[in-house]
Amino acid sequence: IGDSLKVAPAISKSAVNEGESMELQCTTTRGFTEHTFLSVTWSIRKESSPLEEILTFGPDDKIKVGPNYTQRYTDSGLQLDLRGGGFYGLVLKRAKPSDQGEYVCTAQEWVRQGEEGRNWRKILEKSEEMGKVVVTPT
What we know:
Blueprint: E1 6-11, E2 15-17, E3 22-29, E4 37-45, E5 52-57, E6 63-65, H1 70-74, E7 78-84, E8 87-92, E9 101-113, E10 119-136
Parallel strand pairs: 2-10
Antiparallel strand pairs: 1-3, 3-8, 4-5, 4-9, 5-6, 7-8, 9-10
Domain Ig-like: 9-125
Organism: Cirrhinus mrigala
Pfam families: ig
């Protein structure tokens, strides 16, 4: 399988006021799609801290939420926008000052393997910096 995975990230607003919503958009394209599955992960890097996972969608259409975002997801503060055509959006509602930082979108391509395809094996990964978001406290 050739490396045809591409990720085009965009952020709806690079500066938001506390309490506003913003959308982190990842558009993924890939050449060969038969028998492969996609996952998309949104992460944030705050200052010099390591990359922190916000949410992953896929490869089995399941959602995995990063440990620091579980409560926010439960409270509907994170919402997926899956309009198809390779578009994956994550809406962060009610922005907080802690949402300030550099956002990264990572797409991964997977195949099923093992008995009855129970296991996932990652075959490709592409990470793109989405850019920095500044949150102005109210």
